[in-house]
Amino acid sequence: MTAEIAIMNKTAVALAADSAVTIEQEKGQKIFNTVNKLFALSKYHPVGIMIYGSANFMDVPWESIIKIYRANLGKQPFPTLKEYSDSFISFLSENITLFPETEQKKYFFRAIAGYFIDIKREIDDQVKEKISCDKKIMETSVNEIVEQTIKKHYEVWNKAAKLDNISADYDKTLIENYSELIIKAKDEIFQQLPISKKTVEDLQIVCASIFSKDRFARNSSGLVIAGFGEEETFPSLVSFAIEAKVNNTLKYKKEKDAAINVDSSAWIIPFAQSEMVATFIEGVDPSYNKIISDYLSEYFEKYPDFIVDSIENVDVTKKQEFSKKLKEIGLSILTDFNKRLQDYRRAFHINPIINAVSFLPKDELAAMAESLVNLTSFKRKISLDAETVGGPIDVAVISKGDGFIWIKRKHYFKPELNPYFFANYFREDRKEPKSEKA
């Protein structure tokens, strides 16, 4: 996991990211604290990018993808930050060298096979439970369990919204182009389990939906692009969830965007593990706040029934009317209670911090960003949870005049032993072809 943050005011945007990455293995987790998650998106212009979630995209490290894009971008500027983000998304969508169709098919097969394994595990658990209760199981019962389990997954995906960038005929073409892989995965995972033709069709639709619907896998990635366009005076930010490229179509969606303008003079935006930042800014742990809200909501829903049931010599209709009125009163009280708490948090915690951030100089923006990431890291260190946030914290500040400036940056090598690395940083990435003499 990761802790990252972006803090913006009218002067600059500060980005900070930890260095931990968690590798899931059969025997448990392995955590490395040396991963790079923060990069300059352009060598020549004030734009940066952070990654969180999976460190790879389609089995290619994000670091390599970003640096290849940066080399291709060269000195080209864009008028707005949005155009930088659009350019990067287009690079991912259109690049056939990094993500050839053969690799797309391999990824697709692994993804659906893994999903089929999860379905098969549910089926096995239900069969075992049935045998445990009845000491035996009929073939018809197995058929019913298989059909109902797959249907349940089909209905979940069917209800999910389609992503905006996915074409109307995408699911159909994916099923046509990848049908052999779907059947292969079905045969390998479900083996001799009875699956009807209709259920196979449901599985095909599920496979297409995995790459077209607004539900993202745990191994998906997050991208944060922040900085200034050529024509922008104030910084802005946009973030994406991105999962895969299959059937030559990128599965992604925009999650957050924020911009500094006349009305919004400061932003504090955490990414990935954000509960400690939220606690610092709002003055209360989000989970604790939710528990209180959920309990009171349940209390005001049930309490009127307890009162009404204790009243004697009143007919059922009047009891129901009385209970309804009490619940409406309770809902009104709860709404007012939540509003007062929110108003208090905004007046005494959120607004004072935001107001202070709006005036912070660049070095203080960087210090605040680093401190908030370090706060999450410290919480993981002193708790019994896995230290999924940790390692050196990379910090950069991006401003209109100075561009992308590293405040803290780890290296896997000693900088003093590799001066040529820094000397070559601004080498021309693409040389113009020499013109022929007439």
Helix content: 40-55%
SS-based structural class? alpha+beta
The whole-number mean of residue pLDDT values reads 90
Number of domains: 3
Tell me the radius of gyration.
27 Å
| Sheet with most strands: strand arrangement | 12-1-2-13-14
How do the helices and strands follow one another from N- to C-terminus? EEEEEEEEHHHHHHEEEEHHHHEEH
**Span between N and C termini?**
60 Å
CATH fold call of the largest domain: Glutamine Phosphoribosylpyrophosphate, subunit 1, domain 1
Low-confidence stretches: 431-438
> What is the overall silhouette?
globular
Tell me what portion of residues adopts beta-strand conformation. Answer: 15-25%
Give the CATH class of the largest domain.
Alpha Beta
Total of DSSP H or I helical runs spanning 4+ residues = 11
Return the CATH architecture of the largest domain: 4-Layer Sandwich
Please tally the β strands and state the result.
14
Question: What is the subunit organization of this protein?
Answer: single chain
Q: Major beta sheet, specifics?
A: 5 strands, antiparallel
